[in-house]
Amino acid sequence: MTLTTDTRHTRPVDRYPTRTAEPLAPFARTEPTVWGGRTGPIDPATLAAHDTHGYSRYDSLLSPAEVATFRAELDRLATDDAVRADERTVVERSSAEVRSIFEVHRTSELIAELVRDPRVLDRARQVLGSEVSVHQSRVNYMPGFHGKGFYWHSDFETWHAEDGMPSPRAVSMSIALTDNYPFNGGLMVLPGSQRTFVPCVGETPAEHYKASLTEQEIGVPSRAALSRLAAEHGVDQFTGTAGSALLFDSNLMHGSGNNITPFPRSNIFVVFNSVENALVEPYAAAAPRPGFIAARSAEPLAR
Amino acid sequence: MTLTTDTRHTRPVDRYPTRTAEPLAPFARTEPTVWGGRTGPIDPATLAAHDTHGYSRYDSLLSPAEVATFRAELDRLATDDAVRADERTVVERSSAEVRSIFEVHRTSELIAELVRDPRVLDRARQVLGSEVSVHQSRVNYMPGFHGKGFYWHSDFETWHAEDGMPSPRAVSMSIALTDNYPFNGGLMVLPGSQRTFVPCVGETPAEHYKASLTEQEIGVPSRAALSRLAAEHGVDQFTGTAGSALLFDSNLMHGSGNNITPFPRSNIFVVFNSVENALVEPYAAAAPRPGFIAARSAEPLAR
């Protein structure tokens, strides 16, 4: 990759323009989805499918006993007054319930261990073809009866615009700690959409992350772009029993519906970034988001 | 059935108390789900399953050509200025889009014909074991991207409280005019829940129907009751291609999630009531709802 310095902002040329005043057409990404060059626990067929669809699923990544251990850890965190008061904890306005806790790989020993577990870490290394660092970690709690969903978005669009991630050389692992049915607000993806970058319209407001963590408003793809991607690729849902995991590309378009069922959902979410994709200044925001949402330093993870 | 006159309200004794100030425990209903005594197009196995689960599905009830015809009719209705201005049309506040049109079996010749079609009418007669009348008819439009769902409810609870329907001897047919996926806000049901009546807390406000048609607030079952029913019965979703139909009991607990996918949903919805279950005064409301929402006269349907 040739880095041409943009002297205005001391960052590479922006190959993924977004948050523009006028709409830009979606375009094909240049980087691969699977970078290759490293062996790991993903078998060739699964890796090829990941390359095509932008995601791969792993049933029973965690054992039932491990699921129970991590569920107890999430209960402990959500009921700890110090954790609730921490700025890294997102509390839903209307219900006062904990919805997410960020940077848990630094505050929970169990989750610190999990992000270095070969079942997790070596899959990320294998897809990204390099050593990796944690860009973000969090645990999510979606309640039953009144669980809110997330509208369609590409994580990379946000990480590029607001965190200064140069390329979509990052991958997320979502590990379900509860059973995901088709009807309780699980993740929906547009398979194959990771190959298309969808620029979004509208400048990023200051401290946008405070609103965007509970409700997306800026960085929203157009309905026309979503319709085209869905018509081409359809919609896949991440369903499966507790302990299963979804590994998905940073630019995969995804979202989730609400959850009126009595079945709550919780998961552990870790974003791995290639150490060759270190953050620069944000491409479309006045200041980077806090480090607990988007780690500014890229320390390679090691066991 | 012995009708004991309640002299305060000139209506039979209320065997399904609801909208009370204090919570009442759920209890088993006394009436059957399938009344029997009439032959019809439903085969014995399907009828037995309907009796157990409170619903039955019919793939390709309408042919693809019929689906196209009815979709065109719905488009015509939704874009007709006179229809939009009619009090029987529900327009979503935030988007100004038509969400439902009531009493369409009186305003659309095509739908008037459909409710008398043997595929529809004779199934209702067969389940209810009698001649039937239309209690309510409507067409529903759920848009893509921002389709709102409906929280869990028993229709009978509302029809009993607000319309004066004595018994759950009524059945609804929902005919899909678009494909129902697991992820675009299709109907969810708690199978078997029709056998349990769940009284709801809270007095019915005046003209409650104006708010309740877009958002349920009163007549909402408790989370404890929903959790018990879902733990016992699970959740089923109504999925299938356009033209398929769901026939379900008036007391079946059902709801729907929102729809952020690009795939809109529309359907035709007809409620048949047994002519032996004619409405009386509302059991828990000051005045009955308008006739276009709940027909006060019980004329047996005939071809």
Automatic annotation (TrEMBL), chains A, B:
Keyword field contains Aminoacyl-tRNA synthetase: no
Domain of life: Bacteria
Cofactor: Fe(2+)
InterPro entries: EctD, Phytyl_CoA_dOase-like
SUPFAM superfamilies with a match to the protein in the record: Clavaminate synthase-like (SSF51197)
Catalytic activity: L-ectoine + 2-oxoglutarate + O2 = 5-hydroxyectoine + succinate + CO2
Main EC class the enzyme belongs to: oxidoreductase
Family the UniProt entry places it in: Belongs to the PhyH family. EctD subfamily.
NCBIfam families: ectoine_ThpD
Role description: Involved in the biosynthesis of 5-hydroxyectoine, called compatible solute, which helps organisms to survive extreme osmotic stress by acting as a highly soluble organic osmolyte. Catalyzes the 2-oxoglutarate-dependent selective hydroxylation of L-ectoine to yield (4S,5S)-5-hydroxyectoine.
Subunit details: Homodimer.
Name assigned to this protein: Ectoine hydroxylase
Organism: Actinokineospora cianjurensis
